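Journal club prep — side note

Before the paper discussion, L.F. wants everyone to see what a predicted structure for a comparable chain looks like in token form. Sequence:
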Amino acid sequence: MLDISEFRDNDSVIRADHDKRKIPHNKIDKVIQLDEEWRRAVFDQSLARKKRNDAAKLISNAKKAGNSEEMKKLLAEVKDLGTKIEDLDYTANQLIEKRDAIRMTIPNILHNEVPIGDDEKSNTLHSEFGKKPEFSFSPRTHNELLEINKWAELPRAAKITGSRFYFLKGDLARLEMALQSYTVDFMLKKEYTLIHPPTMMNRKAYEGVTDLGDFETVMYGVQPDGYYMIATSEHPLTAMYMDEIIEPSILPIKLVGVSPCFRREVGAHGQSDKGIWRVHQFTKIEQIIISHPDDSWNFHEEMLENCIELWNSLGIHYRVVNICTGDMGTVASRKYDLEAWLPGPGEYKEIVSCSNCTDYQANRLRMRFRTPDGNSSVHTLNSTAVATSRALVAIMEQYQLEDGRVNIPKVLQAYMNGQKIIEPTII
């Protein structure tokens, strides 16, 4: 969430950002109003406490002097101060709770270079890599390739769990494991620390990394324990330093997380989202950086360069787009997406999101670092390296052969004992 000082000293910046996003200012006004009421209540409470403390000294002096009349007079004057202080304390707590509940729903301030637009149609092209593969035959969709090669079991997974789950089989399952190993090795060479995070988080931690009001509908809750299955390892890795003051000497903290991810994926989706493209459970390798505020925009570009180098090494044709105001969520200040070309449906689809969240998550998580002038919020950044199910789709469609088999990208062949083509599964 935005630091409260932004509402007190720079509310014009927040208002201008809301205008870019085409959202009203009523929540900003309410936060400012509640903050003023809270500060008045705290001030009145401090005055009442001072009056009680001053009176306590005078009462003590009157008692020592044996002046019972003065003591009675003073006691009468402070008789109701205790109740008043308790009432003001309750009022202050209620006000700050209401203020911060609204503050947590107000989105991050967008970077100046974020394109302005209503929806994803206004996203702009940042760069493009590789060439669209050309085929001497009509390319199949990944759904067709899965079916003719028996690489996945969707109906049987639906039978034991539900729709949008799957069994991966044979060479395709091996290719997924190769992708994980290769990507982790790639990130370790970039001096990121490998982390396997918990796959469940409590509500307090989850509210620190995302707007649950906006995100809760796509998450799986675990009751009666009150946990949530993680939707990405970004969330536990970012929250790992919650409520901590980080020594500046260890910044930047660079992590690569590997985890299963769980999403309900509610709503209607197109034909190209079927198969293993949009599913309820998948594996993702995620980049996380926790940095000094002065360095975060350089690290945002570094994360993007990591993605570009990684996906170039896989030989995939894709483009990088700048996400516009209308397609931006609550948390990020700026975001790039990588979109792979899928020859089957003939469209580009998202394979990576790369975001700088500035101090928005850190303020919610109370995650700070030491400075000579006190403690200050760090900046948090996240980016997909590889979501394996979507990477498999891109590889299958771009590397497919006329007989339905699929060539293996050269960098992955060593992770599959030198195998060059993934073959059909017998059963």
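L.F.'s comment for the group: The radius of gyration is 28 Å. Keep this in mind when we get to the figures.
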